[in-house]
Amino acid sequence: MSLLSTIIISSGIWRAVLFTPGGELPFQLKIEEQKGNYSFTIINGKEHMQLGEVTLKNDSVIVQFPVYESELRLKINSAQHLEGVFNNLTRLTHASIRLDAKFTDQPRFPLKSAAPPKSVAGKWSVTFSPDTKDSSAAVGVFEQNKNLVTGTFLTTSGDYRFLEGVVDGDSLFLSSFDGVFVYLFKAQVTDNKLVGMFYSGTHRQITWSGFSDPSASLPDASTLTTIKDGENGFYFRFPDLDSIMVSIDDPSFKNKIVIVQILGSWCPNCLDESAFLADYYDKNKLKGFEIVGLSFEKTDDFKRAVGNVTRFRNRLNINYKLLISANRDKLKATLPGIENFMGFPTTIFLDKNHKVRKVHAGFNGPATGAEYENFKDDFYNFMNKLLSE
Question: Is the pTM of this model over 0.90?
Answer without folding.
Answer: yes
